[in-house]
Predict the 3D structure of the following.
Amino acid sequence: NAGVTQTPKFQVLKTGQSMTLQCAQDMNHEYMSWYRQDPGMGLRLIHYSVGAGITDQGEVPNGYNVSRSTTEDFPLRLLSAAPSQTSVYFCASSYVAGGNNEQFFGPGTRLTVL
Amino acid sequence: AQKITQTQPGMFVQEKEAVTLDCTYDTSDQSYGLFWYKQPSSGEMIFLIYQGSYDEQNATEGRYSLNFQKARKSANLVISASQLGDSAMYFCAMRGVDSGGGADGLTFGKGTHLIIQP
């Protein structure tokens, strides 16, 4: 049971380049989400999904796209990278139902946009 | 909209002392969950403790306890007998429900940087 995995761990992009951050989980969680963490800030929700084929925007969705074709995978796409997107990105997953629906976090991807 | 406020940017505590990290929240949801996460310098997010809005007892997990005062909208984390390994960032977070009644994403506070001194 690998939990939540993210690739790559580190990435440097030039302004205007596009790329996809990968996220996968093997816990059969319906809920998956992406957060970004900037210095001195807590994590902020970018996009989330409550199941395959269903996605929705979080607090800071601009500049990012997501899709959910399978339960296991939830990739985050940067369409045209900007320096403001330099951040650490975390993927997380959980069950949807109420109660102690703890979110399990991946190890993070550190992205630098030059 | 939900909001989490952590008013202590940093704290220095002597080893073996108890620590209280403050967290207040604001929400219009009737059902919600409150979480504390630890982020060491290595960067991973480690779940510590959870409190549901309808839970009557304060949550406890080993040396961690959550002092939940619903009327005051506070959810302070208490660490008993602090250890050097407790030095880290600590984030309070809230999870509400979305319009469909399912779990929503987490809203985080800005965190408290806790340093345990020998």
